[in-house]
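We treat protein structure as text, and this decision shapes the records that our systems exchange. Because each token names a local backbone shape, the row as a whole describes the fold. An entry from our holdings is shown next, in its original layout:
>
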Amino acid sequence: MRKRLLVLMTLFWWCAGGAHLAAQDLAAVRAPELDGPSLPASTNKDTTDADAQAAPTGGKLAEIIDRIVKREHELMAAFDLYSPIIETYIQEMKPDKQLGLVPKTDVYLLGQADFHGRLRVHSMTESGKSGSLVWSFVPAGFLQMIFVDRGGFDKAHYRFEYRRREFLGDVRCFVFDVSAAPKVRGARFMGTVWVEDQDFTIVRINGRYSPATHFSLKTIEDEYYLHFDSWRTNVRSGLWMPSYVYSQKLARPSFLGNPSFKSATHLWGYNPKTSSREEELNRLLVESANPVKEEAAQHDRSPLGAEREWRHEAENNVLDLLEHDGLLAPQGEVDKVLNTIVNNLEVTNNLDGQIDLHCRVLLTTNLEMFSIGSTIVLSRGLLDVVPDEATLAAMLAHEMADAMLPKPYQDQYGFNDLVRLPPTEVLRRLSFREEKTDTAANGAKAMELLKKSPYAANLGTAGLFVRQLQSQSKQLKRLISPQLGNQAFFASQLLQSAPALEPNNKDQIAALPLGSRVKIDPWNAGVSLMKTKPFTRLSVRDKMPFEVTPLLPYLTRYAEPPTAQENSKSPAGRGQ
């Protein structure tokens, strides 16, 4: 059946026009892990409106602080059960007369968190430069930012000062300033924590760690510590897991170097969703007593048919591996947005019925795209920064052209043993980069697809995106370096229709900041579209193409999905 052309603009795209830097040992804020395999939920659910209006004092305040401390220790013990992926993308900033601060260089860190004993991050990427001759970024330092104090968070080491009540999204919180108690030695946290008022779990941590050793020069002392804003998400009833950390150190240049940094850390994949093929094992299949037989059964495979089925098997093996290891988002609403654009390209080029392409989302920040079999994969970072649907269509058209070319080297993944890889080896062992000889041909084919599509009249914005990316390619080497596939900028033909790049024109938006489009469910690694309020840009400093910016998550409490019995009782679940 011929696919239907969907030319309506997809809602999502157009509603928006390290801790330690040096080799300091984290053991200063580390203690042996607490026993306890689970995180019990508090039974205190009776906070009243009257209680909410009054500031806690005396014994009530002391009781709240005791529960906060107890709850944090329970949560730290629960972390031992999980090994989420932790990704940190860092931009070193430099001053610019017109734009304020702009990226100077960047660093990318990706690994698996390990909470057993000393904090560790098992790298999933090839090691590269991550600092300077005198200091380097420590991945475990950014992991440390999900804690207030992993080794000594109690009333003996800290003072708690009640400030106010405040809502973070839908979650009502107590707000406390936290600082080291007098005469306490060692590196300690100093800042503010937000505590949800039902189970007394810390859901936001904002501040910094004070150095264990006090230098005579404050500029040197500050060199090793970043300010950070750390958030937790309610992933299950009574369970709040770290999901996002924004950190920075912004300072004016000095004779000591005094670098400025901004970074975004994401954690996800605490409980990755099993693949759809595994779920099929749990389904109850009822066979008919008189099975239906095809009148003209064709059980044998032609050589071409067998070849295509083998390639499909290789495709499934790769997708299952990437999803199982938390690198590929499970199928969801973002895929549907991308599939709609691909469908538009197929229909207007009379390709519907000839190919059956579909899209998936790679969860990493790197700007990259690739195809495996009939699947087109775009990274979360790339989806974040494209300014409009036409630019996204240009990226997808290139990978459509690539997907239509057989790739014999990918056929090897039909052997299951080749995809039995530990998470730390996946990005090192797999590659889906297009051949250099195919790059020009794919670009020409992509332009052919675009010129016949609904996006033909708007390709100037796609060319402008390419210009912006090329203008910052030297400063953002890690961002534009793909882990598995192809770089995002391509097809010099796009530049011919693109206007000149105007960095000082606040109304010309060539690319968006990172974090503009997609958010991650930290529990199952699912992705969804952000629903943001549009803002008017007041100056060119508000454009921030490809830059790291702080995110302020809208916190909600986890709601258990309705059971099948509850669905059957609801009006929507009743049969007609």
